Amino acid sequence: MKIHLVLLLLTVLAAPGCRKKPAATPATPSPTPAEASGAAAQKDPDLTALNAAYKKFWREQGSPPAKLDDLVTRKYMPSIPVPPPGKKFNVDWSKMEVTLVNQ
Q: Each residue of 59-75: pLDDT tens digit?
């Protein structure tokens, strides 16, 4: 009888340790410098406006502008914004958008 009580007691004490533990939350990876600059660039209102004009030109004209100055010539923008120091605007053909890149 004592053996049954000891086994029952061990089972009761061991059971909580057998519960499934919640999965550890994976650490959020730090963005690469390119991703960080791209994310920061998309918050730039000038870059957002430039992309909107670029895409509108493409949609309405049926082809992308040959150069960004065409957006001004065709009245899609009053002027091309000045990029931040050390940066320049670049057309990323794989994403079909204007991005900021280091000079």
A: 999 999 999 999 999 99
Residues in the chain: 103
- Residues spanned by the domain of 40: 32-103
Domain count for the chain, please give it.
1
First to last CA, the chain: 83
Judge contact between 58 and 71, C-beta under 8 A.
no
* Stronger pLDDT, 103 or 30, i.e. the higher one: 103
Give the predicted TM-score (pTM) of the model.
0.56
Alpha-carbon distance of 13 to 100, in angstroms, equals 61
